[in-house]
Amino acid sequence: MELTILHLYPDCMSLYGEYGNIAVLRRHLEALGVSVTVETALFEDKPDFESADFIYMGAGTERTQKAALQALLPHKEALRAAIDRGAAVLFTGNAMETLGISIVDAQGKSWPCLGLADFSTVETDRRTPEDVVAHTSLWDSPVVGFMNKCSVTEDAAPLFGRLSLGFGNEEEKGPEGYLSGNVFATHLTGPVLVKNPDFTDFLIRRIFELKSWEVPETLPVLPYEREAYEVTLKELTARIGG
């Protein structure tokens, strides 16, 4: 079993240590006997979407987000083709916003986006750096994490149906993220897969299904990852009176 991960712009779209998501995903896959190749694409590169099985981009500043968007736009049809043939996609932090129709920045300038989703984003003067507890119907456990955004994303089909802590796409504790087929996105930043082993397991199962590999009955558990998750969930749940 061989798998290629394409990490887009890790030099400027890994603001909160998002490289950890690729590292933990690779470790889990290799523990299952998968031979994993991680390729990177920088601004000056033509991303190799044709060979990619999993495509990832993390968070950047508002400025580097626009730079990444401009670098990706010439390749949007190749990205669309990769999705159509079954590549899985995860965009975290403000990388999520590039998937939509447009971003209107704080100065009122409209930036055309990749058009792979129907939502649009407007930057605001309200920044929300806060912890998050999110809930999805895709797996049982809550997701814990952190977001730091200054935007509202309208009309996105959410990955998380509700938040019990944090600001959603459009409102406090509202739905958050984006989900369509094998495309997953969330404003959660940093090593969200490191913090949430069930999210990692879900993506692994989806990757196996997309590759037509037999999905293992049990998935590997790395040392202390579930203990760390339980500690974080307990602390955040105590803050919301859960």
What is this structure, in a nutshell?
The protein contains six helices and eleven strands.
Count of DSSP H/I helices: 6
Strand order of the largest sheet: 2-1-3-4-11-10
Domain count, please report it.
Answer: 1
Number of strands: 11
CATH class: Alpha Beta
What does this structure look like?
This protein is 28% helix and 28% strand. Strands 2-1-3-4-11-10 form a six-stranded mixed sheet, covered by helices on one side. Strands 5, 6, 7, 8 and 9 form a five-stranded mixed sheet that branches. With 242 residues, it is an alpha/beta fold. The mean pLDDT is 95. It has helices at residues 19-31, 62-72, 76-85, 192-195, 197-210, 225-239; strands at residues 2-8, 35-41, 54-57, 88-92, 102-104, 110-112, 120-135, 143-154, 162-165, 178-180, 183-186. It contains six helices and eleven strands. It has one domain (2-239): Class I glutamine amidotransferase (GATase) domain (Rossmann fold, 3-Layer(aba) Sandwich).
